[in-house]
Amino acid sequence: MKVIVTESFAESCQLVAQEIIDVVNQNPAAKLGLATGGTAEQVYPHLVKAYQDGKVDFSGISTVNLDEYMGMSPEHPVSYRKCMDTWFFDQVNVDKSRTYVANGLNDPEAEIAAFNEKLYGDKMLDFQLLGVGVSGHIGFNEAGEYLTAGVHIEQLDESTIQANSRYFDSPDDVPRQSITMGVGDIMKAEKIVLIATGDSKVPVMKRLLADDRVSADLPVSVLKLHRDATIVIDRELYEKATR
Ligand code: GLP
Fold this sequence. Notes:
The chain has helices spanning 9-26, 38-41, 44-52, 80-87, 108-120, 158-164, 183-187, 202-210, 235-242, and strands at 2-6, 31-34, 62-65, 67-69, 99-100, 127-130, 152-155, 177-180, 192-196, 229-234. It is of the alpha/beta class. Strands 1-10-9-6-2-3-5 form a seven-stranded parallel beta sheet, sandwiched between helices. Strands 4-8-7 form a three-stranded antiparallel beta sheet, with helices on one face. Strand 9, helix 8 (202-210) and strand 10 (229-234) form a beta-alpha-beta unit. Helix 8 crosses helix 9 (235-242). The longest helix has 18 residues, at 9-26. It is globular, with a radius of gyration of 17 Å. 2-amino-2-deoxy-6-O-phosphono-alpha-D-glucopyranose is lined by residues 35-39, 66-67, 131-133, 139-140, 160, 164.
């Protein structure tokens, strides 16, 4: 696992966006695994700008998103489908029929099957963008006794519910369940880039960078097992996490 330390979060976003642009420019039919969350959100404007400036063409790509809240309509203002449409898909020339964000209203078993078809029906992910939760989750794979390899329904941690409640009227409105790629699905991507910033991520980054250990209790630590995984963090976070 490689760690890149930038001078600012803005620089991190620029750098991560450039990684994605490079993947697409090298392979216009690239299959991208995408992420939501407040951190990843800041990467998309750079992709939109690059598209507007004629520096990248998204017409040939396909995408699969990491996760979605269960029980939430794709039309809900904070569904991950809505976020992806608003932040990215509706602003570039991607073919939306080749974008997949799980539908939280569907029958769970049927949606797991659909998710797997999108992930493995044609080719594997060339790239996966990640954020990290305050619990150390990637996608919605929460910390615990074990990790799950494949697409599954996950119970959200109390810390995740609290962290994500800023998007809802109250913590009670945050869905308790999600559908998510498993860690095995994420690890099958050719290249993985994780972006993190902010004080809330200091404890997780401290544990991640402290040693060479991999633990189900810190899901993000599986990235240490990947051939081409990069963590992009700003100096402020890096220094707080390694002090
Ligand atoms: C959600 C998503 C995760 C994301 C996390 C980080 O919980 N399911 O995939 O990594 O948010 O969010 P933020 O960047 O807002 O801290």
